[in-house]
Amino acid sequence: MAEGKKKQKKSPWWYKLGILVFGAVFCVSAFMAGRDYLAAKKEADAFDSLSKLAADYAEEKAPADLTESAGETTDQEKAAEWAELLKEAAGYAALKNENPDYVGWIRIPDTRIDYPVVDRESDPEYYLHRAFDGSKSFGGTPFLGEASGVDTKCLIIYGHNMKNGSIFGTLDSYKKADYWKEHPIVRFYVDGEPRTYEVFAAVETQVLYEDEDGFRYYRYDGDIPEEEYDELVTWLRGHSDYDTEIVPEYEDQILMLSTCSYHTKNGRFVVAARRVAEP
Q1: Which one has a higher pLDDT value, 4 or 46?
Q2: For the domain 101-276, what is the CATH code?
Q3: What is the DSSP string of 178-199?
Q4: How far apart are the first and last CA of the chain?
Q5: Which of 56, 60, 106, 272 could form a disulfide with 201 if both were Cys (CB 3.0 to 4.6 A apart)?
Q6: What are the sequence ranges of the domains in the chain?
Q7: What is the pTM of this model?
Q8: Can you tell me the distance from the alpha carbon of 279 to that of 277, in angstroms, rounded to the nearest whole number?
Q9: Neighbours of 71 (CB within 10 A)
C-alpha cells in the first residue's frame, strides 16, 4: 500500500441514521399521496359515471313533449333553455333507480359543484363518509340536513370542503363578490323538475357548543314559521361578506349550502339562495 494514500473517513452513525429516516419518511409520504390521489380519482370517476348515466337517460327517454312545455314561455331563447333544463331534470330523476336515498342533483353552472344529493332520514349523516352506492368514501356525498326536505321552507345541503376542490371544496369562492356576480344561480333538480335559486348571502360562521351564545343557522331548516324565517334572513344578510340587495320573502324557499371553513374553530361557510320562479 502506498504510504501517501489517506485512509477514507467513515460517516458518523447519526448521519447514516438520518439518511435512513429521511428515506423512510419520503417513501411513506409518497405512498400516502398516491393512495389519496387514487381514492380521490375513484370518487370523481364514480360521480362522473352517475352524471353520464343521467345524461344518457335524458337523451334516450326524456318525454317527447318537452318542446311543448318550453313553448309556453314567450322568449324563444328562454324556451330553448327551459327545454334543455327539463331534459336534464328527466335524466337526473332516473338516478332514483340507483339509490332510494337519492333526492336530487345540485349544480352551480360553470363551477365544479355538480353532485347528487341524498337523504337517509333514519341516519342523516350516513353519507358523511360514504359514496353514492354506500361504500366508504372520505369525501362522502352531499346530503340534506336533519329537518330538511326538498319541499320544506328552508333546506340545508351539507358537503365536505375537500382540498382537491371536489364536493364543496370550491364553495368558499363565494367569499368574493365578483365570484357571486359571475355565478349567481344555483340549480337543484328534484323529481324531474329543474329548480332555480339565486344567491343572496355568503357567510363565514361556526358551529357552537351548547353553552355558547350566538346564532345557529343549522337549526333553521325545515318548515319554520315566518318569525324564524325572518330571523334567518336578517342574520344571513347582516353577516354576509357583501350585500347582494336581494331580500327573500316568506313565500320564497331558502336553500343553504354548508361546508367546513378554517377561519375559526368549528368554522363553517354558508351560501344561501332563494328559489325564484321558473319560466
Answers
A1: 46
A2: 2.40.260.10
A3: HHHHH--EEEEEETTEEEEEEE
A4: 97
A5: 272
A6: 101-276
A7: 0.84
A8: 7
A9: 14
